[in-house]
């Protein structure tokens, strides 16, 4: 696993985070969500030199538990353990005892990342993406 510094995103990081998100999904429609996560100090980033290599957004509105709503790794940095590093860090700093996240059933890479990091399947939600259920994952933080 590669080690890079992980810290809370700052206001000045917003544009670079939005650019990475846009690069991955082809849209900047999550810019307000990202901006709010930065304001709430719930956006973690990893830098490689001067570029944001990965970021994570979480909240605590999922039945009063921490929920990672978004993990994004720049394609140039994928398969290097950045997602795992973010999950490990989040497990250590989670403000709640329980940490949840989710991914589409079709996202084999993220499913493997959750399993490698000792997250357990906790259920699924149908009808978000047609024909591709969302799998919920859980890990105890203490």
From TrEMBL:
Pfam families associated with the record: Acetyltransf_1
InterPro entries, sorted: Acyl_CoA_acyltransferase, GNAT_dom
Residues in N-acetyltransferase domain copies: 4-142
Protein name: GNAT family N-acetyltransferase
């Amino acid at each position: 696993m590669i080690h890079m510094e992980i810290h809370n995103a700052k206001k000045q990081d917003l544009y670079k985070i939005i650019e990475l998100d846009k690069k991955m999904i082809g849209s900047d429609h999550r810019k307000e969500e990202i901006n709010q996560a930065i304001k709430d100090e719930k956006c973690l980033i990893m830098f490689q030199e001067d570029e944001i290599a990965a970021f994570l957004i979480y909240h605590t509105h999922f039945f009063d538990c921490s929920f990672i709503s978004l993990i994004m790794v720049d394609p140039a940095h994928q398969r290097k353990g950045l997602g795992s590093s973010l999950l490990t860090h989040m497990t250590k700093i989670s403000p709640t005892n329980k940490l949840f996240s989710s991914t589409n059933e079709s996202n084999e890479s993220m499913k493997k990342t959750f399993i490698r990091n000792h997250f357990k399947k906790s259920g699924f939600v149908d009808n978000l993406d047609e024909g591709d259920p969302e799998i919920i994952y859980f890990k105890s933080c203490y």
